[in-house]
Amino acid sequence: MPTILILEDEPFIALDIETVLEGCGQRSFVTLSTGADAVSWLKENSPSAAIVDPRLSDGVCTAVARHLVNFDIPFIVYSGETESVSELEPAFVEGHLLVKPASPEQLVEAVETALNGSYRRRKSGT
Predict the structure, then answer these.
(1) 47 near 68, Cβ under 8 Å?
(2) Cα separation of 10 and 86, whole Å?
(3) What pTM does this model have?
(4) Of 107, 109, 91, which is closest to residue 99 (Cα–Cα)?
(5) Residue 5: which of 65, 50, 54 has the closest Cα?
(6) Of 24, 66, 96, 107, which residue has the fewest beta carbons closer than 10 angstroms?
(7) Which residues pair with 96 in a beta bridge?
């Protein structure tokens, strides 16, 4: 079963994401609330996909976004901000933007699309 990394520092939003994932049969996920914890976790683990809030309690998670891009891990940028997150960190442009609050159906669709590889970066020449 694929593992999904959830990076969210608001406990109720994290719980909501977990509940939605469990509701669609996804049981393997790791929820972290800081970029520092995610960087440490990613050194030892490779998720199938990630749901990332770009702004966490310890700042903008640029190192996480860069890691996901460098290791070709599809990710969803789950943000309530209306300004472009790519201005915070260009690597965020490689993720699929899903604006908070999203419906459970939108979240499930985004995760399924990420797991199916549709959000993976297109390599030049392919």
Answers:
(1) no
(2) 21
(3) 0.89
(4) 107
(5) 50
(6) 24
(7) 76
